[in-house]
Amino acid sequence: MMSTAGNSTNIVWHKCAVEKLDRQRLLQQKGCVIWITGLSGSGKSTVACALSQGLHLRGKLTYILDGDNVRHGLNHDLGFNAEDRAENIRRIAEVAKLFADAGIICIASLISPYRKDRDACRALFPEGDFIEVFMDVPLNICENRDPKGLYKLARAGKIKGFTGVDDPYEPPLNCEIVLQQKGRDCVSPSSMAETVISYLEEKGYLQA
């Protein structure tokens, strides 16, 4: 049946005999996306790498879509205004959907500051296959870390529209997992990763 998607008209979805369930049986895992959101400096990328390593050691196939990394290629034409942020997130969500359909555990790590954009990503996936992980780290801790020196530049007025400084971050209201970092209590990235892995085990994602 002919259909229309956005500006694409007269297109037909072509089905193949090998489907998601077949790929999942081959990999002995269930494809999904783990969407890690939080302020710059909250530890998203570090936890994503720890999570990927932890799952790799368990024989599970993952792929990380890191916000900065994707902007080196697929999204290099996008800036950081609200429209471009929305498009950046939309593209990454569509790529993550392909990885999940391949049976891969896709880990998306990006600020994604607006709820409506994250909710639009969730709507692309079957129930349960979009796992939102909120890095609940206070702004002052993120700013003290400032691993890329971006907060300093934003406070000096050299970066405009920087999340947490002159652009808002909207925390999730109903995320699946919250990873907290409060005060001097320092939870290691590997411990945070284990929290996510435990969730995946409990929900049956580490078996076909």
Report the order of strands and helices: EEHEHEHHEHEHHEH
**Main sheet, how many strands, which sense, barrel?**
5 strands, parallel
Q: What structural class do helix, strand and pairing data support?
A: alpha/beta
Distance between the termini: 31 Å
Residue share in helix: 25-40%
Mean pLDDT: 95
Q: Rounded to an integer, what's the Rg over CA atoms?
A: 18 Å
Percent strand: 15-25%
Uncertain regions spanning at least 5 consecutive residues: none
Given the structure, what is the number of helices?
8
Number of DSSP E strands: 7
Which descriptor suits the 3D outline? globular
The strand line-up of the biggest sheet is 4-5-3-6-7
